[in-house]
Amino acid sequence: MDISFKKKRGFKASFFFITRVFYILAPQKLHLFMLLKLTPLRFYLYTFFYLIFIGGLTAQVSDEAHKNNYKWFDEQIGLQNTDLYNGVRYVTQFRTLPNDFRFFKNDDYHLAKITFDQQPYYDIPIKYDLFQDEIVAKLQGSNGESIVYLNKFFISEFSFLDKTFVQLNSQSSNEPVQGFYELAVYNEPIELYIKYYKQKKEFIKQKSLYHKFSLKVSYLLKYEGQYYVVSSKSDIQKILPNFKKQINSFFQANKKIKKDNPTEFMKMLALNLNRYIRQTTTK
Q1: Contact 111/99 with Cβ under 8 angstroms?
Q2: Among the three residues 55, 77, 99, which one is the final residue of a domain in this structure?
Q3: Are 124 and 136 in contact (CB under 8 A)?
Q4: At which of 77, 106, 129 does a domain end?
């Protein structure tokens, strides 16, 4: 299935973008219904001057209040009237055996916070398709339930299952960096991003075609503004040649963790690399 989106935005998209911001800044529910009665020109003029006047008040609203206000707004408008519905209908394409799936962790929907077109949406039921690197969302509307692939162009990050994923579109030292990555270690000299993906194989069982998905993981380090795809000790030593001895020692001391849980090993390695860097810079 070819999933393609167009990255465009009209008055309706702009209307709900500004109206949501307007409501968060002034969370009296009366404002929402007043805005809905404005013509496009009056809406833009009124909102422009209003945001200038009260924009400084946003810092006084707590994160929980922001979340509750956004959720209330979307419930009143209906998710079918938001930009989230700018997607492609999801259709199951592959026959699999029980307990085999193409998604992250399992085949269930999990509540997520999604930053879509610079706007946060809360408690959206999603599944992360690791085969196509897309987000499947279950959206409740006035006409019932819709399951869609969200428009990936507009998703900058999403959080669910105690993990945060960001969308990258850059170039590493040896290959393109595109798609969703777990933000595993950040706000440090060395940042670690983890790419989860699934590969598909076909097989025949009882004269029927089935598909099997196998999980793969790759790792990305960001250092001094440059991304590096790393898969071995030597890859890491090339990035930080001054810490070859420390990197060797870490690999030697953590062989079992590396074998049993490579992802946890990489997180520990990134944290230790940052410790080495801080110790050097403070001397």
Answers
A1: no
A2: 77
A3: no
A4: 77
Counting the structural domains of the chain, the total is: 2
Question: What Rg, from alpha-carbon coordinates, does the chain have?
Answer: 23
Domain that holds residue 263: 232-283
Give the C-alpha separation, 174 to 171, whole Å.
8
CA atoms of 174 and 204, how far apart (whole Å) = 37
> Is 103 contained in some domain?
no
Contacts of residue 281, defined as CB under 8 A and 6 or more positions apart, other chains included, come to none
Residue 145 has a pLDDT of: 84
Q: Is the residue at 269 inside a domain?
A: yes
The answer to the question of residue 254 being in a domain is yes
Is position 239 within any domain?
yes
Cα–Cα distance list, 281 to 208, 272, 274, 275 (Å)? 61, 14, 11, 10
The pLDDT, as a whole number, for residue 21 is 57
pLDDT interval class at 92 (50, 70, 90): confident
Give the tens place of pLDDT for each residue, 2-23: 555 555 454 444 555 555 555 5
Written as one letter, the residue type at 142 is S
Query: Model confidence over 221-273: pLDDT tens digits?
Result: 999 999 999 999 999 999 999 999 999 999 999 999 999 999 999 999 999 99
